[in-house]
Each structure stands twice: as C-alpha cells, then as structure tokens.
C-alpha cells in the first residue's frame, strides 16, 4: 500500500509561537513544543467539538474556540520524546472547500501565501481521492482551486 497523500506531497505548516499546525481533507494536526523532559502527567488537554485547551505544568499554552467543528470522540493527543505534543483533530466537514484559515476563530491565522498553499494542497488531495489510479502528490495546480476547485462530478464518464 502506498503512503498517504500528505506524506508523499509534504505538508503546508502554519507557524505559531508555540509550534505549528497544518491540515488535510480530514484532519487538523497541531504540534506544540514543550520543555524537554515533560511528562504526560504534566499535560492537561481538553478537546471538544469547537474548543481546545492545552496546559503544561499549569501554564496555558493554547486555549480557545476552534475555527470549525471537529468530531470530539476522535480527537487525540500524544507526548513524543518528552518534548513535543501532537494533537490530531478530525474535521466534521471533510471536503476540499473546508480549508481552515486559522486554527482558532481569532488566532493563529495562516498568512495569505500559506493559506493559498493549504487550499491548493487540499484541492490536489481531493483530486487524488476522486482518481485513485493517479498520483497527484507532485502535481502543481493553478487557476480555480479555491473552495476545493471545480466540481467535475456532473460530467459524463
């Protein structure tokens, strides 16, 4: 089996003071740098449909209303190498037109260039899913790709 689209094509990260976040059609990934030696018992993480909070050793690192809704029961967090917290949120709306412009409603927005690259990547990922025999991981896209690109589903095959 081949690697997932985002592993073959790379990710488009949005940098933040505490780490970075990026997205695929289905998920939002959040990577938070924490002091080396952090233990899981030092971490307090709450993941709800439209809200997230993360504190390490009593210090709030991330808290607020998410840009869009997520599937609460499918959100997870892990502590890796005692220095990185990785949070994975499952989007409720999983189409290419649902490209988050920021992680939280009013914080951690992608700059316009990064937002453009994120939308391109989601559109190519959509094309990959619609055409499983083709590899779009190295493809470039221009033109109408905003909101997930053109809809070819009504064309006859």
UniProtKB/TrEMBL annotation:
Major subcellular site: nucleus
GO molecular function, one term: unfolded protein binding
Function: May regulate the LIS1/dynein pathway by stabilizing LIS1 with Hsp90 chaperone.
Organism encoding this protein: Polioptila caerulea
One GO biological process term: protein folding
Gene3D superfamilies: 2.60.40.790, Single helix bin
Lineage: superkingdom: Eukaryota
Region annotation Disordered: where it falls in the sequence: 138-157
Keyword set, alphabetical order: Acetylation, Centromere, Chromosome, Cytoplasm, Cytoskeleton, Kinetochore, Phosphoprotein
GO cellular component: centrosome; cytoplasm; kinetochore; spindle pole
Domain CS: 14-104
Subunit comment: Interacts with LIS1.
Record-linked Pfam families: CS
Record-given protein name: NudC domain-containing protein 2
Cellular compartment(s): Chromosome, Centromere, Kinetochore; Cytoplasm, Cytoskeleton, Microtubule organizing center, Centrosome; Cytoplasm, Cytoskeleton, Spindle pole
